[in-house]
């Protein structure tokens, strides 16, 4: 497997992605990986490698800026990093679309076949990518935030898969229903898989804060990754 860091830009903001792929002569579909609220750290990079092992090009994108990272368990610091994007969905959409344009220009990538997946805050980012009308085959939200911002949606053409823990305190059942209604009204090909007895951040092995609502759950993580593999195979 080949891995490397890739510099790219959003206007004047320097960004750094992490690329992973198995070398062949042919181009491959690409999957953007949007990180959680702590930034493009090891978890997102390992996810890019997991995508590469599935036969695609994995690209862990950067929402915050080159060298800007939070830390595990730093609720206040990570919240300060995520906050401007949660509030300003125009900024969020522009930043993730910059990653989409960057990955489409990579020589390893079949630019006509791109998807995106994201964890927690990154799930919000991938859903906003779809809401922006981006020309991608599909987006996957993994214990992501469903609530839309104030900005109007464009025509959603991507297929949508959401992998959600029923006991996630950040996305209560009424928010799930509101999201499903939004997708239905927009005519989207959507799926929501809900795992019982499962909280937020269930795919992250270091998540262990029941009071905050973030707890790793291996069986839910395994089921989620099987669903991701199936979805990517379908759209590509």
> How far apart are the termini?
21 Å
Q: How do the strands of the widest beta sheet line up side by side?
A: 1-2-4-3-5-6-7-8
Give the rounded overall mean pLDDT.
96
Global structural class: alpha/beta
CATH architecture: 3-Layer(aba) Sandwich
- Low confidence ranges: none
Order of helices and strands: EEEHEHHEHEEHEEEH
CATH class: Alpha Beta
Summed up, the domain count is 1
* Helix content range: 25-40%
The count of β-strands is 10
Quick one: CATH superfamily? Alpha/Beta hydrolase fold, catalytic domain
Largest sheet: 8 strands, mixed
Instruction: Please indicate the percent range of residues in DSSP E strands (runs of 2 or more).
Output: 25-35%
Helical stretch tally? 6
- Backbone CA Rg: 16 Å
Task: Based on Cα principal axes, name the global outline.
Answer: globular
Fold-level CATH name = Rossmann fold
Question: What does this entry look like structurally?
Answer:
With 236 residues, this protein is an alpha/beta fold. The chain has a single domain, classed as Alpha/Beta hydrolase fold, catalytic domain (Rossmann fold, 3-Layer(aba) Sandwich), CATH 3.40.50. The chain contains six helices and ten strands. The protein has helices spanning 42-53, 75-87, 89-104, 121-131, 173-185, 218-235; strands spanning 2-10, 13-21, 28-34, 57-60, 109-119, 138-142, 159-165, 190-195, 208-209, 214-215. The strands form two sheets. The chain has an eight-stranded mixed beta sheet, with helices on both faces. It has a two-stranded antiparallel ribbon with strand order 9-10. The mean pLDDT is 96.
């Amino acid at each position: 497997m080949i891995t490397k860091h890739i510099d790219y830009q959003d206007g004047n903001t320097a960004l750094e992605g992490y690329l992973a792929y198995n070398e062949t002569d042919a181009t491959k579909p690409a999957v953007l990986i949007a990180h959680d609220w702590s930034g493009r750290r090891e978890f997102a990079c390992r996810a890019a490698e997991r995508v590469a092992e599935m036969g695609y090009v994995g690209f862990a994108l950067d929402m915050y800026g080159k060298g800007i990272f939070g830390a595990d368990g730093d609720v206040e610091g990570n919240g300060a990093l995520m906050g401007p994007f949660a509030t300003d969905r125009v900024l969020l959409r522009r930043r993730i679309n910059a990653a989409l344009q960057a990955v489409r220009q990579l020589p390893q990538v079949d630019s006509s076949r791109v998807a995106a997946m994201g964890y927690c805050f990154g799930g919000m980012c991938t859903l906003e990518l779809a809401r922006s009308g981006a020309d991608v085959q599909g987006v996957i939200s993994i214990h992501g935030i469903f609530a839309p911002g104030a900005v109007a949606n464009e025509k959603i053409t991507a297929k949508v898969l959401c992998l959600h823990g029923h006991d996630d305190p950040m996305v209560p059942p009424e928010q799930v229903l509101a999201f499903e209604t939004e997708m239905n009204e927009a005519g989207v090909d959507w799926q929501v898989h809900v795992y019982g007895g499962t909280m937020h951040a269930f795919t992250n092995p270091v998540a262990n804060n029941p009071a905050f609502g973030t707890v790793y759950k291996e069986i839910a993580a395994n089921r989620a990754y099987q669903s991701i593999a199936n979805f990517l195979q379908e759209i590509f």
